[in-house]
Amino acid sequence: MRVLGVDPGLTRCGVAVVDGGTGRKVTCVAVDTVRTPVDADLASRLLAVSDFVESWLDLHKPDVVAVERVFSQYNVQTAMGTAQAGGVVAVAAARRGLKVEFHTPSEVKAAVTGSGRADKAQVTAMVMRLLSLQERPGTADAADALALAICHIWRAPMRARLAEAEQRAAELARVHKARLAQARKAGGASR
Predict the structure, then answer these.
(1) Which residues form the active site (predicted)?
(2) Which H, E and C letters describe the chain, residue by residue?
(3) Which of 13, 91, 167, 173 is most buried, by CB atoms within 10 Å?
(4) Is residue 16 part of a domain?
């Protein structure tokens, strides 16, 4: 499975491509950070993020896109910019028919470090170790994008099994309700 991980942001947007192998084996394909000038207008900044992500989607052809979910931030303006950047990434992926999965920061930290409260240094250190990187990714945003991709690779099979189990349970419940209704109907008819 090839995953494009994106840590969305307007000033810095981390982007990474990671391949998942058998078991928990992961390999870094590419990693970078999109930077946009703070003094540029919002539309231009979003376009720059979109153009970069679209070029990576075309170049690296991921199977799925994993984006960090905006959870909560004290600065509303920053949260809005982050959400908008994540939105243009989702649109770019949807245009190509790619599934987009959102992961919370604590989910990503827990998957990669074992603790949902890990700091950026711990996430970067574990990403480097897991991917056997000799040098740090350029920015913390790039490291977070790698972590998002790894998180998705490791959690996607579990999510798929859970969704399958939920579907089976719903089907069993539907069949059971139908049988009960049929039994009540047959019991009422025999009186």
Answers:
(1) 7, 68, 141
(2) CEEEEEECCCCEEEEEEEEECCCCCEEEEEEEEEECCCCCCHHHHHHHHHHHHHHHHHHHCCCEEEEECCCCCCCHHHHHHHHHHHHHHHHHHHHCCCEEEEECHHHHHHHHHCCCCCCHHHHHHHHHHHHCCCCCCCCHHHHHHHHHHHHHHHHHHHHHHHHHHHHHHHHHHHHHHHHHHHHHHHHHHCC
(3) 13
(4) yes
Catalytic site residue 7?
A: yes
121-133 pLDDT per residue, tens: 999 999 999 999 9
Tens digits of residue pLDDT in 60-70: 999 999 999 98
Q: Does the annotation mark 51 as catalytic?
A: no
pTM of this structure: 0.85
Tell me the residue range of the domain where 75 lies: 2-162
Instruction: Considering only residues 129 and 156, tell me which one the structure prediction assigns the higher pLDDT.
Output: 129
Q: Taking residues 135-146, what's their average pLDDT?
A: 96
Establish if 177 belongs to a structural domain.
Answer: no
- Report how many domains make up the chain: 1
CATH number of the domain encompassing residue 76: 3.30.420.10
Catalytic residue among 7, 32, 107, 144: 7
